[in-house]
Design brief:
alpha+beta, disordered C terminus, about 240 residues
Length: about 240
């Protein structure tokens, strides 16, 4: 899943889930990767931190990451999951400002790091790549705007159901117990993604556990009854697949 989390509607032609490298012509992709240096990050390592002054860009080749932001009052929100083919850190590289979010490896991640100067020179010399990056930024913003609009019409219970349906479709693996999420997220991160308190999400997850809709343990969720989640989500989840 390369776009933001929790879209309540079905796919409608927005390309926010198409990763950056997949948008480029082969020669442009090869040339861009060639100006960087390979890096590897172990699981749970912070690759970028919110407000830090670094300005390099990372192109993800292997593994998944989570993007989180923390408000002044300590409230942490999960903004997105980024994986192979995605670009992260381009905002700071283009603006020269501090990082707007923290990026953490969810598993072992392989990436290519490009210094700000090399990256901006490459864009200046390759207008087609710059336009692809602008298109990605536009698609992500449209996706965010759409999510905010749709979220306003849903209850927290419905938002959580939609989010779980999204995650089992994009990051679900079938096991003997059900569909297990392959990304380890905390209750606070779930809460931040659906715009609720941690306590509210904990209550809802307990309700789903009691109904045997999900099975949970520390940072592990297995969805046993996606059909129930679809009913909770109502029309918001009627058009999406559940990974079955």
């Amino acid at each position: 899943m390369t776009g933001g989390l929790g879209h309540a509607g079905g796919d409608d032609g927005l390309d926010d889930r198409v990763p950056f490298l997949a948008r480029l012509e082969r020669d442009d992709r090869t040339a861009l990767l060639a100006i960087g240096r390979p890096l590897h990050y172990p699981a749970r390592e912070a690759m970028m931190r919110q407000d830090e002054p670094s300005t390099h860009v990372l192109l993800l080749l292997q593994g998944w990451t989570k993007v989180t932001a923390t408000a002044a009052n300590g409230y942490e929100a999960l903004l997105a999951l980024r994986g192979p083919g995605d670009i992260i850190g381009e905002g700071a590289a283009l603006s020269g400002r501090g990082r707007s979010a923290t990026v953490t490896a969810l598993e072992r991640v392989g990436a290519v790091a490009i210094d700000q100067g090399r990256f901006t020179r490459f864009l200046s010399d390759s207008p087609s790549v710059a336009l692809k990056l602008l298109g990605l930024a536009t698609d992500r913003q449209r996706s965010t705007d759409r999510r905010r609009l749709e979220w306003a019409a849903l209850t927290v219970r419905e938002r959580l159901a939609v989010l779980l349906l999204d995650l089992i479709r994009t990051h679900g693996t079938r096991t003997g117990d059900g569909i297990e999420l392959t990304v380890a997220l905390s209750q606070q991160e779930f809460a931040g993604s659906v715009g609720a308190s941690r306590e509210a999400v904990a209550r809802l997850l307990k309700e789903l556990r009691d109904r045997r809709v999900v099975v949970t343990s520390r940072r592990r969720i297995v969805v046993v009854r996606p059909d129930v989640l679809r009913r909770i989500a109502g029309t918001a989840g009627s058009a999406r697949e559940d990974g079955e």
